[in-house]
Write a structure and sequence with these properties.
By secondary structure, the protein is mainly alpha-helical. Helix 1 packs across helix 6 and helix 3 packs parallel to helix 4. The longest helix is centred in the last third of the chain and has 35 residues. The radius of gyration is 24 Å and the shape is flat.
């Protein structure tokens, strides 16, 4: 047997291959999947799981209704992240897996910790519900399989994040080209996705929320920045850099205020708003603050120089940390729905007004 064949003995398979074969046994990973091909690599398996559809279908196969809504045609990142988070939520609430046995959405989407993804699938296979559904767990204790992915002595997990990142870039480029080439009526569905998301936010806060946000973010600096309308190219570039720096500084201050004021007040009243509700409202705002704080520090250093101010380096360095927006965007709908529900409780209304 070739060790990449789904028919290969378990002793010759790596753990990720056993995971792929188990998903095929469950009936969610088709036999013609590249992840099950004779020449399959762990990269193929990572791509097969990336949008979260296979994983959501897995828990629904074991116990129907474990995930209520699956975005089966998830082309946008935030829809893929919603699928992944729905799977993770089912793992804890339905299958009683420990948080320590779960990967994070980023660790799957960007393949930054794919061994943990494989571990989670293995732990899912060991749950009581999986056994009751008739599925055999993997690996068996006697098999002694290690969670590795090696090819010609090279650790394939090591470069997996870069390979998947390149795939994501190509995928985004294809989508952008398709948008340009597609007739207006054919792109309506795609636009509706963002339209519905924007509508949800507007319904929750309305135009007044936009005005408050604008006032907090810009603090009246725009007039000063754009006062040099007839300046030289260098002066205009300086104005643009100043706007970037000031806007970023104000945004960091805004995020800090949200954490220091709103998160602190609401978290301190667990009898009125639960910890889970508070988490649903604010998502990973702390990660956003940390990412932008670091970005601002790098930007300040770059702009402190009077010559050779290359701000592109700041953006390139921030690429990985800004991935936290995938999680944040995927949680927006839940945040809006949670706020609406809390707004129906008098005690919550009073607390929100005080905050």
């Amino acid at each position: 047997f070739d060790r990449y064949s789904p028919c290969a003995p378990a002793a010759k398979m790596e753990l990720w291959q056993m995971a792929a074969r188990w998903l095929n046994t469950v009936g969610v990973l088709p036999a013609d999947s590249p992840a099950l091909a004779r020449s399959a690599r762990v990269y193929d398996f990572a791509l097969a799981l990336q949008d979260g559809v296979v994983l959501c279908n897995t828990v629904n196969k074991i116990l129907p209704g474990s995930v209520k809504q699956v975005n089966s045609k998830a082309e946008k990142q935030f829809l893929k992240m919603q699928n992944i988070n729905s799977f993770l939520a089912a793992c804890t609430s339905v299958f009683s897996l420990k948080t320590s046995d779960l990967f994070t959405a980023d660790e799957l989407y960007y393949a930054s910790n794919f061994p943990k993804v494989v571990h989670t699938i293995s732990m899912l296979s060991r749950t009581q519900l999986s056994g009751l559904a008739g599925f055999t767990y993997f690996p068996k204790e006697s098999e002694g399989v290690q969670n590795v992915a090696e090819e010609d002595g090279e650790d394939m997990y090591h470069n997996l994040e870069d390979l998947v990142g390149q795939s994501l870039s190509l995928e985004e480029a294809k989508v952008n080209l398709a948008i340009v080439a597609t007739a207006p009526e054919e792109s309506v569905e795609e636009e509706d996705i963002y339209g519905q998301l924007q509508k949800a936010v507007e319904d929750a806060g309305g135009s007044a929320g936009d005005e408050v946000y604008t006032d907090l973010l810009y603090k009246g600096t725009a007039d000063q920045i754009y006062s040099a309308g007839s300046s030289s190219q260098d002066e205009k570039r300086n104005c643009v850099l100043l706007e970037l720096q000031e806007t970023e500084r104000n945004y960091v201050d805004l995020l800090r205020m949200i954490i220091d004021v709103f998160v602190r007040v609401l978290s301190a009243n667990a009898k009125i708003i639960s910890r889970l509700e508070c988490k649903a409202i604010f998502s990973n705002v702390e990660d956003l603050y940390a990412a932008h704080k670091k970005f601002l520090e790098n930007l300040d250093r770059a702009l402190a120089s009077h010559t050779g101010r290359n701000v592109s380096v700041c953006f390139l360095d921030a690429i990985k940390s800004f991935r936290c927006y995938g999680q944040f965007c995927s949680d927006i709908t839940e945040a809006v729905n949670t706020l609406r529900e809390l707004d129906t409780r008098p005690a919550c209304q009073k607390l929100l007004e005080q905050a």
